[in-house]
Design brief:
Layout (H helix, E strand, L loop, with lengths): L6 E8 L2 E8 L8 E6 L12 H8 L7 E6 L3 E2 L9 E2 L5 H7 L3 H9 L5 H19 L6 E6 L1 H12 L6 E5 L6 H11 L3 E7 L7 H13 L3 E7 L7 H14 L7
Parallel strand pairs: 3-4, 3-7, 7-8, 8-9, 9-10
Antiparallel strand pairs: 1-2, 2-4, 5-6
Length: 256
């Protein structure tokens, strides 16, 4: 691991979402690039913040130019006995578990648009627009991603934005809204996508990740698919791949 660059943590609000932000402590100018990562269902809003310093250390050339933003999901799950937990939309856990046990039900699950996802997608698109307004960082220099449910909402956002983001990162995500995403993906045009998924994921079957990969690839998106021997998690190799992706898409000279 490279020496960690110094980052300062601040709390900001973009659009209607509260965010934890990691900004370069010492830099010659304002950040020129942005990485936005969204947490999964039932995690605290700051669940992925610890990834920021690791990614910055793995991208030393860009570390002083990248703003890391970690939005907090709009739903508070405290009334479900999960204090501090957040979500992007509610999940019927029992129905979901039944769905992944049978291929026919899983196929139906992948075709559905979950109740609440369109609203969260809209909030995230407003966030991206507000980040551009407040920081001057355009969408084309903004990488979107997340883990589990957070990767699903950012996939929807990346496909719906008027212009493509710099890249999309899908950690342990799955296919949803199949027909909508297929049509949107064909209209999206070139987009780099990093996708990782564990073979032994007990929450989101590997087949759902393969289905998402196939849909995006068939639509012409550039998908780097990383399967790994593990459960529902983000392995270190996936972080390395994300750092490599950041170095590739955030390599423009000053002034670009």
């Amino acid at each position: 691991m490279e020496t960690r660059p110094k980052l300062r943590m601040i709390q900001e609000r973009y659009g209607e979402l509260d965010c934890t932000v990691l900004a370069p402590l010492s830099t010659a100018g304002p950040p020129r690039f942005c990485t936005i990562l969204c947490h999964g269902f039932g995690a605290p809003g700051n669940d992925l913040v610890a990834l920021g310093p690791d990614l910055a250390a793995m991208c030393p050339e860009q570390a002083g130019d990248v703003l890391f933003i970690f939005p907090q999901g709009p739903l508070d799950l405290g009334n479900m006995g999960m204090p501090g937990a957040r979500a992007w939309w509610m999940i019927d856990i029992e129905r979901f578990q039944r769905s992944i046990e049978r291929p026919d039900k899983m196929a139906r699950f992948m075709r559905e648009v979950p109740a609440g996802m369109p609203e969260s997608s809209h909030l995230m698109r407003e966030l991206v627009a507000d980040v551009k307004r407040q920081t001057g960082i355009p969408v084309g220099r903004t990488l979107l991603g997340g883990f589990s449910q957070g990767s699903m909402v950012t996939t929807d956002v990346a496909l719906r934005l008027p212009e493509p983001p710099a890249a999309l990162c899908v950690f342990s995500g799955t296919l949803l809204a199949q027909e909508e995403w297929r049509a949107l993906a064909h209209k999206r045009g070139p987009l780099r996508v990093l996708q990782s998924h564990g073979y032994f994921d007990p929450l989101l079957p590997f087949a759902g990740a393969e289905a998402l990969r196939n849909l995006l690839t068939e639509a012409g998106l550039d998908v780097d698919f990383l399967p790994f021997d593990g459960p529902h998690t983000i392995p270190f190799e996936a972080l390395e791949r994300l750092a490599l992706l950041m170095r590739r898409v955030f390599s423009g000279p000053p002034g670009t």
